Structure prediction request, 254 residues.
Amino acid sequence: MQGWEGLRPLVDENSPTPLYHQVFLVLRDRIRHGQIEDNAMLPNEMRLAALFSVSRITIKRALAELVAEGMVVRQRGVGTMVKAPQLPMPLVQGAFDNWIENLEAFDRDVEVELLDVSETTADAVLAKHLGIATGAMVQSVTRLRKVAGAPFAHVVAWVPARVAARYEPSGLATTPMLALLERAGFKPADAEQWISAVTTPQPIAALLGMPVPEAALLLEQIMHDADGNPLQFLRAHYHAERFRYHVQISRKSR
Prediction:
């Protein structure tokens, strides 16, 4: 049967990740990459336990995670059938010359749930990013971005008090930050971005529907106006299975 070869060495008893979750990750990745096809029947629990060299209880827990993810359907007397979900994948075009236009299109295409708006003081790192004094007041805005009802990004943005004072906080529930800033008279012109892979903090993983531990794409961004003044610092955790970042690179003519 296609897709079942070489499973035994893919789990590690010495890993801090529980065995059942390791099995889940292997099966999930094989389903997502088409190595185990949609509508295929998985081997029974005893056979999977032998293939992975783990206990049947471990297999039961791994299959329960697959069911929770909506990737398989289990029927008594029939077996476990693959039902790989076709998740829409937002695509951000990151070319610098049309950064603003792509950000606007991205905000139009997703659903946003406002989780929190509050005032806080800037620590040394945040103060450096926003060009303000340590201890200065900033507005903190936490949002959950979704596509087709599935959360794919947890975003926290910090805005200097002088900037936040120019728009109504009530608008944060319905209006993209870029639009709010422009309506308030600011002109976002460019941004610096840093992208890395990190282990998702448990509270954020829960909101994104991700098991822990699992890696997420972390994007940090400072937005500036035309004079180079920081307007916003943003930190976003993206669900690795529901988001990818695309950058088109071209060589400058000499």
About this structure: DSSP finds eight helices and ten strands in the chain. The longest helix spans residues 19-32. Confidence is low (pLDDT under 50) at residues 91-98.
